[in-house]
Structure prediction request, 115 residues.
Amino acid sequence: MAEGGIIACQPIAEGVAITSKGPFALTRKVVKLKIFDPEISQSVRYRFSDLHELFEMPLYEYLTKARVKPSGHAMKLRVLGESSETAKPWVLVLCCEIASKKIKKFFNQSQIKAE
Prediction:
């Protein structure tokens, strides 16, 4: 999941974008992203389906272990960007504010990032 984020679903959403400046430097910045509706390629849809299947049960178990109600979240594939030229497919996780912090921690784990 090299490109993606966890954000709320609104016409303009705020998320964390990870950018690279140099071979090893990563910076995080909060950006306002707009939702676009272009055609998403079949290969990206298949990859999202694989990721959804791969992470659905581990995320549920992680939230249960953290004592957060796991039933209040959904994963969706959306095209987001600051403009239509910069828009890319993102995995969008819709959740309540309480689960948000735990879901971010889940996706920031090294073994999850490796997928």
